[in-house]
Amino acid sequence: MLSLLPKIIRSEAKCLKLHPFDHRNLSTLLSWIKSERELRMWAGETFPTLPNERTFRTHLNRQRVKAYQAEDQSGRFMGYAELVGRTGGDGIICRVIVDPARRGLGLGKDLVELLSEEAFRKVRFKRLLLNVFTFNTPALRCYRSLGFRPLLKRPKPRSFKGECWNLVVMQKNPSAQAA
Ligand SMILES: CC(C)(COP(=O)(O)OP(=O)(O)OC[C@H]1O[C@@H](n2cnc3c(N)ncnc32)[C@H](O)[C@@H]1OP(=O)(O)O)[C@@H](O)C(=O)NCCC(=O)NCCS
């Protein structure tokens, strides 16, 4: 019985729906980021310090940022991500995050898959790009599984509190198949 559980949870994840971000979920979203390290992994250099509701709302008002949320069947907030860019040009997937209590169940892949469909079919981006740190294994595997591939041969070094973190730029075309 117990061995069936991951499969059941996995199939529920497949029922995620993508909607424009509802600002009423802002405090929940911000509660998912607990440290500057997590912030940097999630959002790169977008925020100099942990954002609060005011600074995050300012971020959401930036031009060409489209914010989305993933909900389960009962409308529960499960994940967040953004598409940034101009229709017909390159789009960037940014700030993908899944509720920490529900990671490793396939939700990240489902969210990014839905977002890619939205990006290519509705927003009509020509190509999708994203940035991910090489040590962020769940994120890297998530993007690879969905057909994203490194754009540049060498990662770009970034520093965080005296550490060197390597950043990979990945890309996907509308025709790219999932791995
Ligand atoms: C990155 C993130 C969105 C992935 O979502 P998730 O629901 O945890 O991931 P999934 O369950 O969909 O799994 C995605 C892949 O990672 C693998 N994976 C998941 N958790 C893992 C772990 N702890 N260690 C190693 N691999 C892991 C899965 O097996 C899957 O790979 P596969 O398709 O090759 O089998 C999520 O971990 C997260 O919110 N992280 C914090 C924010 C962040 O770093 N965002 C990314 C910014 S670029």
Q: How would you concisely characterize the structure shown here?
A:
The chain has 179 residues and is α+β, with helices and mostly antiparallel strands. Helices cover 31% and strands 30% of the residues. It has helices spanning 5-13, 26-31, 36-43, 53-60, 107-122, 137-145, and strands at residues 17-20, 65-71, 77-85, 90-98, 127-133, 149-150, 156-160, 163-172.
Description:
It is globular and about 35 Å long. The two termini are 30 Å apart. Helices cover 31% and strands 30% of the residues. It is of the alpha+beta class. Strands 1, 2, 3, 4, 5, 6, 7 and 8 form an 8-stranded mixed beta sheet that branches. The chain has a domain at 2-123: Aminopeptidase. The structure holds coenzyme A.
Structural category: alpha+beta
Tally of DSSP helical segments:
6
The residue fraction in helices comes out at 25-40%
Q: Please trace the helix and strand order, writing H or E for each element.
A: HEHHHEEEHEHEEE
Task: Please state the second-level CATH architecture of the domain at 2-123.
Answer: 3-Layer(aba) Sandwich
Quote the distance from N terminus to C terminus: 30 Å
List the helices and strands and how they pair.
Elements: H1 5-13, E1 17-20, H2 26-31, H3 36-43, H4 53-60, E2 65-71, E3 77-85, E4 90-98, H5 107-122, E5 127-133, H6 137-145, E6 149-150, E7 156-160, E8 163-172
Parallel strand pairs: 4-5
Antiparallel strand pairs: 1-2, 2-3, 3-4, 5-8, 6-8, 7-8
The chain binds coenzyme A.
The site of coenzyme A (COA) has 20 residues, from helix 3, strand 4, helix 5 and helix 6.
